[in-house]
Design brief:
Helix content: under 10%
Number of helices: 0
Largest sheet: 6 strands, antiparallel
Oligomer: single chain
Strand content: over 45%
Distance between the termini: 35 Å
Length: 463
């Protein structure tokens, strides 16, 4: 039996095969960001990468210690507030020089839209401590902070940071700690990672899925700007870094990486690396990539935020996405990401919010003729299949369950399925009035989604 498989952004012809072992998805939320569960596409169905919608400007870097080259934002939720860290810097393009030293700045918000700069009184700038500077001196070029999810982290290191620095002959990534996210100190008096270029947003975080810290940093390799990764049990001693791999896609310059676990499906690592285009005046644009194990990523070629979205993104390094995805209290059913604009243009640069539908990074999109997506064989736990989907005019989704060899399971055919229409983040699938899934998952099943004029974003089995 000949089938059509979607691999690395192109269609290829192959033979239907029975997997030796079904993929155990348990009751996890599954997305189509890396094709991990995608087996076969037929008809008028494709995997479609969505762009986030431009929203309001949330920050203008207009303070004297900030300026037009402020950059490398990291944003995360901490209880009932959101924290933001970024570089404050400015560059005079006529004189070709920096107008003041680089510093690390801090802002916070209750809603993710309106951000304030607290007057912290920690560091002096132009004779005054009335500012939001949290780091001065070494490490301010690309400092990144996060709240440590390691349950064994001591109180004095509840917040951690990582940044490039040089001290004498020593250069590399230095690590920091803080009890309150504002007052920072070095964990060690030497760099803990030394192989790399580092002049970018290098980052680290604790990954509860593997019980280790992960780090991602930049290097020059094979003629391009590339990304390396390593792991650590203590944030100090790291494995030798290895290059990320992107099977089936051409090598490109990648600057920042913005890798993080997707909170709604933390077994999936999402990244928003910045594609650097030196032949186009050093223009940059973010793209999407995803991985299950942290080294091999499926990278999509489509630019997520084009240079005209909505303005001042076509210049040198004027279109970086920040590190962080937020769910805002006033925006249910929506995810917020942020991206910079007007870098170098001046007199200030800006940070703009963009919005995704929840789980809305990549969808299985059915056109007017319709078609199907059939998953690889999966083992699951739970008795309720739920979909995150949206249909267009005259559109619908129907679902069937098949054996590993693609045979219909009685009672769970497309004809038995009540068509799903409308727009829902978690709509239950019903077969002839039955919501429960009675088919045994132990030997694995394939899920057939018939999609017409609709987008399927994610699915999961619930208990």
């Amino acid at each position: 039996m000949r089938s059509v498989f979607f691999l690395s952004g192109v269609f290829a012809i192959g033979l239907t095969q029975v997997s030796a072992e079904p993929i155990n998805i348990g009751s996890r939320l599954e997305l189509f960001v890396d094709q991990h569960v995608v087996g076969r596409l037929t008809g008028d169905v494709q995997l479609y990468v969505h762009r986030p919608k431009p929203e309001e400007v949330v920050l203008v870097t207009g303070e004297p210690w900030e300026g037009n080259t402020s950059a490398y934002y990291s944003i995360f939720q901490d209880g009932d507030r959101f924290r933001m860290y970024y570089r404050g810097s400015d560059y005079d393009q006529q004189k070709k020089e920096e107008t003041h030293r680089e510093v690390t700045c801090y802002a916070e918000s209750r809603d993710g839209i309106h951000w304030t700069r607290p007057k912290l009184g920690l560091f002096e700038f132009n004779g005054s401590k009335e500012n939001n500077i949290v780091l001065d001196g070494m490490g301010t070029h690309c400092f990144v902070a996060f709240k440590d999810k390691n349950p064994n982290a001591p109180k004095e290191a509840r917040y951690k940071g990582i940044s490039y620095g040089r001290q004498g002959e020593e250069r590399g990534l230095w690590v920091y700690q803080s009890a309150d996210g504002l007052r920072w100190s070095l964990i060690r008096d030497y760099p803990v990672i030394t192989e790399g270029a580092f002049d970018s947003q290098n980052l680290a975080f604790f990954d509860p899925q593997i019980g280790l810290y992960r780090e991602y940093h930049r290097i020059f390799a094979q003629g391009v700007r590339a990304i390396m990764t390593g792991t650590s049990s203590d944030f100090i001693n790291w494995t030798d870094p290895v290059l990320l791999e992107y099977p089936g896609i051409l090598s490109e310059h990648l600057y920042t990486n913005a890798v993080l676990p997707y909170e709604r499906a933390p077994h999936i690592l999402l990244g928003f690396p910045t594609r650097y285009l030196p032949e186009e005046g050093s223009r940059v644009e973010p793209v999407l990539m995803a991985s299950r194990e942290g080294k091999v990523f499926h990278r999509w070629p489509k630019a997520l935020i084009p240079e005209d979205a909505p303005e001042d993104r076509d210049g040198n390094r004027s279109n970086y996405m920040t590190w962080g995805i937020l769910e805002l209290p006033s925006k249910p059913g929506e995810l917020s990401v942020y991206a910079s604009e007007a870098y170098y243009e001046g007199p200030d640069s800006r940070l703009r919010r963009f919005s995704y539908r929840t789980d809305g990074f990549v969808s299985a999109r059915g056109g007017s003729k319709g078609g199907t997506l059939i998953t690889k064989a999966v083992a699951f736990s739970g008795k309720q299949l739920e979909l995150n989907f949206a249909s267009r005019a005259g559109g619908s989704i129907r679902v069937a369950l098949q054996t590993e060899r693609g045979r219909e399971i009685e009672g769970y055919t497309l004809e038995d399925c009540q068509p799903l229409t409308g727009d829902s983040l978690k709509q239950a699938v019903v077969w002839k009035g039955k919501q429960g899934v009675e088919a045994s998952p132990r030997s694995g099943v394939k899920i057939q989604f018939e999609i017409k004029n609709a987008d399927l974003y994610a699915f999961r089995f619930r208990q």
